[in-house]
Amino acid sequence: MPDKMLHRNVWVLSLAIVTSATDVSYYNCTCQGPFCLHNACVGKTCFVTEQIKDSGDISRHRGCFNNSINEQCNGKTDYSRALCCFSDFCNENVTLFKLAVEPPETSLLLVTVLPIVLFVICLMLFTFLFWKLKQSNRKKSLPRLIDADMVNASIVGDSTLGDLLDCTTGSGSGLPFLVQRTVARQVTLVECVGKGRYGEVWRGLWQGENVAVKIFSSRDEQSWFRETEIYNTVLLRHENILGFIASDMTSRNSSTQLWLITHYHDNGSLYDYLQRTTVDPEGCLQLALSIICGLVHLHVEIFGTQGKPAIAHRDLKSRNILVKSNKQCCIADLGLAVVHSQTADYLDIGNNPRVGTKRYMAPEVLDETICTESFESYKQTDVWAYGLVLWEICRRTFINGMVEDYRPPFYDMVPHDPSFEDMKKVVCVDQQRPHVPNTWSSDKILAALMKTMRECWFQNPSARLTALRIKKTLNKLNNSLEQRKQDC
């Protein structure tokens, strides 16, 4: 009789590990059984398996897999059932057997085939577990699950955003997944504050506090998933990276909505800020320094058990940088980010087919000579884009009583919405760069920033400054200004 049970367990398990590479959506599933740490899990497939024991009792397991299960798993015999489904908690109240029946006698064929089946299953399990172990080192991005009652009772409650983030993010990663869902479903949308190719940004309210809600269009699901993945990275939190609060995929008004909830900043993007505001040279330096501090935090890998992989942004521009109330900047929109870890030896470029913004593309991206297997190549494209953002800030800096109107990079060389070929001709063929007025050299700060931006624009990527070198240079300049103030 134990052999019968083993065979039926093998049958259920062999169905459960048949996967399909076509599913991309993730679902919340009820989890019940000896392998469940919590009462819910997240995966591409929810499942229920039931089996009639020798005693006539029904053994039932519920859970999820990170790979989709094909139609074969929705099968049955007289004494075993398996069901797969694809929506939130679709496996919660499902029962497959109504009446218990006597199990059949083990056939001679079963006895002879069982050792072969066991060997194949063990081999598949070993391969699967090895892959999962490697994936766990590769990605620390899947949100942690905690008991929903504990979320409502002891974490969300009457907490402020500050309390919630301080008490649940000691590792510097995102909030536990069910906390994120609870917060997301308590947010009230107030007004739309921006639109883009990704969707819309709304100002929302959560327990009386402003939050930003980025609502992705359904065609940009990969960007939503990538940002969620990156924002849940351990030790990503930094004052110059946009503060992440929660992410949720939910059905509203008969359609799927993808929400990303972050800190809200009244000043909006740097692009918007520079349209309506000018700065003095010291203010210019503070904006530039805060941006490079955020970029360095992304680019640097932090080693250790609670480490952080290196991240390249790949779409750095003034629209993807926000200005905080203290006039510091924070970097946003990580939907195209590339992740690299020397420790785990992997380069993860994601599955997003979207490309960066053509106006900010480096020469090697435009002429397609970039080495896509090298993480350093992606960091070098970020530095190129940083040089262009620096130029945008400098144009809006008062010097000798004069200031220029805001203009985007290459405004006088390409159309308003330049094509890939437009940018390639200007940047790669003609090797032009944004015009840098000689008047900037009359101010010590702008003169230093002029030199820095030009060293970000070298045609040869390896000749460009690193983000860390730029940060050290600007810090040194800022420290000398502070010292001068103290001396006075």
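Above is the first protein from milestone M3; the second protein from the same milestone is given next.
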Amino acid sequence: MNPRTFRHAAAIGTLSATALVISGCGSSVTSEASETDADAATTVTLENCDREVVVEGAPEAAVGMHPAQTELMLRLGLADRLAGQAQAAAQALPDDVASLAADVPVIGEVMPPSREDLLAVEPDFVYSPTTYEFTAEQGFASIDQLEQADATVYVATGGCAERRMTGEVTDLFDDLENLGEIFGVQDEAADLVVQSRAQLDEVAAAIEDVDPLRVAQVYVEGTTLQAIGAGIEYDILGLAGADNVYGPEDPMFADFFAATITPESLAAEEPDALVFSAYDAEHEAATREYLTTTFPDLPAVTEDRLIAVSSSDVFPGTLGNITIVRDIAEQLYPDAF
């Protein structure tokens, strides 16, 4: 994640929001239709980030506040329901759906859109990866302001602030179930869940008998070294078959999923592999250069196990959470695939 993105992540760790859960993680959903009018729009009521959200009828002017959320709605067949796509330059849409968004207005390149730009497209549904996108102090439209403009706000389950430390890859499945109910595309949502579970199951079967490698996940900006030890990132490594060097039980991750560490402390752990996030090719190259020159004798370096992942793919509520589980597992255990 770049400096803005890392501040983004830090902000969602301190904003006051709580994800209420179903089956241990996610949001609860109920839906009902009028008994007196079979054609009446379905009302969906759910709990999301400690808010009761009521959606009267399927939204017609939705905004994806990050390409990951835009992609999900496109894959659910909702291209004609999109009124805008935000942070569009933060991550390219996959080739197979990019054309579907060609006519969707872009409102914000890398940063979330301003309050004025978001409200200008008159959204009735705003779907965000985190609560950060609604920080009024940053000039963004707050949740209250959007609700006053008759827009429903939905935050990815793993992006609710108190969920950030304990988020799991499978939080995405709760989001898909909720979107299916909200937009009346339950079958499409269920298909995506089935496909995603199958991908995770395939990885689990492939690595079932491997000897787990000790893996540290880090983030480098300049010469500042951060360790990642909680949240969705931690779960991703576990699903990829890694023995995490850093974990939520470590005191330095008591309040936040990332912590600044010294090069000496990382070297002492002697990880077999290093996973790091990068926000573009230049950042990836700079991080590789830092790691190889700072830790020339580290097993992760000598065994050529420096594994880059896109910072966008570790955002909550993205299909990238699923795909990078396999990407990491394949690079850790190539003989298993």
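Note on the second protein: The longest strand covers residues 214-221.
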